[in-house]
Amino acid sequence: xxxxxxxxxxxxxxxxxxxxxxxxxxxxxxxTLLSAGSCIYSTAxxxxxxxxxxxxxxxxxxxxxxxxxxxxLTTLSSSQTxxxxxxxxxxxxxxAEFVFADxxxxxxxESYLLDIRSxxxxxxPYRVDVSSxxxxxxxxxxxxxxxxxxxxxxxxxxxxxxxxxxxxxxxTVDARVLGRRQFYEERPKCEFYQEK
Length: 196
What we know:
Blueprint: H1 9-13, H2 24-44, E1 48-52, E2 70-75, E3 87-91, E4 97-100, E5 110-117, E6 121-123, E7 126-130, E8 136-141, E9 154-157, H3 160-164, E10 170-174, E11 177-180
Parallel strand pairs: 1-10
Antiparallel strand pairs: 1-4, 2-3, 2-5, 5-7, 6-11, 7-8, 8-9
């Protein structure tokens, strides 16, 4: 038995076919709320940080990194306690990138330490400054033991037009591989030992 083609008579009844509980008015209200929510989300979305791993002499094929390689952004505000420290984590993607989507806004400007953790390679750490609305204002290379006020090599600084509104929406920087991890150190042979 064939069913008759669907007609639009249900619009006159303000009720969807095969539904006794969902009226057309409720459906229109739901669509209005969804579209308003997406507009609010798109205007309130914060900046995203993309860290790319380019090929280099030390790491010619970034796609060969182990799958547990990840990047972390850790807040370094001295006014916060250990329980309030914020740690954001991004896994390695197939395109050899780490994506921190929508950095969270805060009550004041935040500084983060970007650290890439890998089993086989050592990466340079970065300082990432984020404005209170979640926009990235600057990225600098740093090193362990460096005072936080001393900024290293500049990787990104928001332009004057972008700095007025807090920074750019999406920022992409290249990670720098410092070297390969060596778990075993080869020592010179003992001079006093002689083979027979």
